[in-house]
Design a protein that fits this description.
Layout (H helix, E strand, L loop, with lengths): L1 E4 L3 E4 L3 E2 L17 H12 L4 E3 L8 H10 L7 E6 L1 E5 L2 E4 L3 H15 L4 E6 L8 H13 L3 E7 L3 H10 L2 E5 L10 H10 L2 E2 L16 H10 L3 H12 L12 H9 L7 H10 L2
Parallel strand pairs: 3-4, 4-5, 5-8, 8-9, 9-10, 10-11
Antiparallel strand pairs: 1-2, 6-7
Helix pairs in contact: 1-2, 1-9, 3-4, 7-8, 7-10
Length: 280
């Protein structure tokens, strides 16, 4: 179950996000012992994960540094995606920073922390409303032409913005909130399907809401498959569209295994209909 990210980077569709490796509010480390997240990252790759999604402001800096410590030199076929364009100044406190000189500096810093010459997928964490889109994407295109970025992605955008952006630069991916409980980005997903654009849904487990009591329909389908509700929620995403690439995050090895095992679940048309009708 793979997807050709950007047309030339085949990745397994169920990846790993690194927000769960840092502290509350995406601030500081999650664990006093850095060997714990390092071991989790290595286990993910051992389990076949080929897409790691991180960001410079997770920590800040912490998540990217952990990825490099755990996985560099990176095995062939492992795709590292990161994000820039946001400055974090405290737990859950962040500011959009999309001026070209800021984006260039952020990208250079990510290259150093990840210990790479080229970032496979560099995603603009937020479009800066104070800076013309053409200037923001122009900076990323220049970095791409310089060989420092392979593919460009956008986070938290709408259909009109993606349409405009793809007239300016090649956009390989989007990241928007999308899960079984929140399908507000259906129109964006439809456009991504038409254009072959990867869609990395954030909060694929509803920020934890889909791992607990999320309704009878979800519980019934989970019971039928001998699975957890979280696994069914991830399997639903994988069945929903071939362009969806969920990257759930976690800091617990057991939860990592649970998430990755969702890729082996085969939902029936009846399951999907029941979930679509009963989980809203």
């Amino acid at each position: 179950m793979t997807f050709p990210l950007g047309g030339d980077l085949p990745v397994r569709r169920l990846g790993l996000g690194t927000g769960g490796l840092v502290g509350a509010g995406y601030w500081g480390p999650r664990h006093d012992d850095p060997d714990r997240p390092v071991a989790l990252l290595r286990r993910a790759v051992e389990r076949g994960v080929t897409l790691i999604d991180t960001a410079d402001n997770y920590g800040p800096d912490v998540a990217e540094e952990l990825v490099a410590r755990a996985l560099h030199p990176y095995p062939q076929g492992l795709v590292i995606a990161t994000k820039g364009g946001v400055v974090r100044t405290g737990p859950d406190v962040w500011h959009i920073a999309g001026r070209p000189e800021q984006l260039r500096a952020m990208c250079e810093a990510s290259l150093r922390r990840l210990r790479v010459g080229t970032i496979d997928l560099y995603q603009l964490h937020r479009l800066d409303p104070e800076v013309p889109m053409a200037e923001q994407l122009g900076a990323l295109t220049e970095l791409q032409q310089a060989g420092k970025i392979r593919h460009i992605g956008l986070d938290s955008i709408g259909v009109e913005e993606l349409t405009r952006a793809q007239e300016i630069a090649p956009i390989a991916s989007v990241q928007n909130r999308y899960n079984l409980l929140d399908r507000g980005a259906e129109d964006l997903l439809e456009l991504c399907e038409k254009r072959g654009t990867a869609f990395l849904p954030w909060f694929p487990l509803g920020n934890g809401r889909l791992t607990g009591d999320a309704g009878e329909a979800l519980a019934a389908v989970a019971a039928r498959h001998g699975a957890t509700t979280g696994q069914i929620a991830l399997a639903w995403l994988l069945h929903r569209s071939p362009v969806l690439l969920p990257t759930p995050g976690t800091g617990a090895p057991a939860h990592l295994d649970e998430n990755l095992d969702a890729a082996h679940l085969a939902l029936t048309e009846e399951d999907l209909a029941r979930l679509d009708a009963g989980v809203q």
